[in-house]
Amino acid sequence: MLARIVGIILGLILATSGYVISGLGTLGTWAVGWDLGPFEPHRTTAGWAAMTLGGILLVAALIPRMGTSRRGTRRRKGSARGGERSLTKPFDMGGPEPAAAIPAMTAPVMTTASTVQAAPAPAQAPASAPAPAAPVGATEFEILRAEMLALCGSEAWNPAARVLARLVRAAETDRERTIAYRDLGDFAAAQGRHDDAAEAYEEAVSYARMVRKAAPNDPTADELLAGALAGVGDTAEAEGRLNEALSAFEEALALRRSPGGREAADPGAQRALSVALERLADLREDRGHRMRALDLYRESYDVTARLAAADPARFGLDLVATRARLEEIEARVAG
């Protein structure tokens, strides 16, 4: 966001300076009579050059930044968040993770925790059942989150956005703040507002680190931080900040692999590990590290094959997608 603001300011300064210097017009007394020194004989050329450069900076600052990866050509299992609950998969309140990815929401618009706007729902939004209500005795935060997810499940984007803003304000613990800002990032990322999403995910990571510092031996703290880092990685990759994405994905994967985790006993945690492996592998391939990507996909295939053998209905499609990507990378390495 700061880079865009600086780009807009510099672009405006250069464009308006060039406008006056080239003699096309004036802006009051500003820049009138500027002596260009040795460039004075080339005043018109210098003015047009400044206007052109200023225009390029403005366009670069205002248009969305696009990543350089080939992620759009791949069939992926879903968010790098793996099996965790998110607004891009708003209908899972802790139940089984579906084998096929649920399409991300495209309607909500999020700016800050206190200022929320929402766009009209698309003509054909993904249809899914609403999330179940919060359990009896739930905290205000849990009630609000259950309400928000239920509203997302019924495609009521405007009320969901308002409840999400309340959710952020209602968060009292670092764990709740992590979840709230992670949801905020999901909401913004689903609508393409990568700058807002990146800021929200960074907030989530900072709170998740505090949770993990307070409970270093708690596997759920590792999962919480890994999920927030995956959001950072996804957003950074989408914006073309591949070094940042690589760092976030590597740390998230290390947390998924950490001793004491639930990978061995929890299929959802195993799937999250598999997704983390493939996110990092895809990024490694984009950077030209095909052998490292191949090793990561082979590891993910082993995990996914065990899941599919135990529950074909739930993880069968995951295995098909992983096998296809593995064969694709093997062919590229062999060729």
TrEMBL record:
The record's Gene3D superfamilies line, in alphabetical order, gives: Tetratricopeptide repeat domain (1.25.40.10)
User: Where are the stretches annotated Disordered?
Assistant: 68-97
User: Which domain of life does this protein belong to?
Assistant: Bacteria
What keywords is this UniProt entry annotated with? Membrane, TPR repeat, Transmembrane, Transmembrane helix
Q: Does the keyword Metal-binding apply?
A: no
- Family matches, as InterPro entries: TPR-like_helical_dom_sf (IPR011990), TPR_rpt (IPR019734)
Q: Tell me where the transmembrane regions lie.
A: 46-67
> What ranges cover the TPR repeats?
226-259
What is the name listed in the Swiss-Prot or TrEMBL entry for this protein? Tetratricopeptide repeat protein
Report the source organism.
Caulobacter sp. 602-2
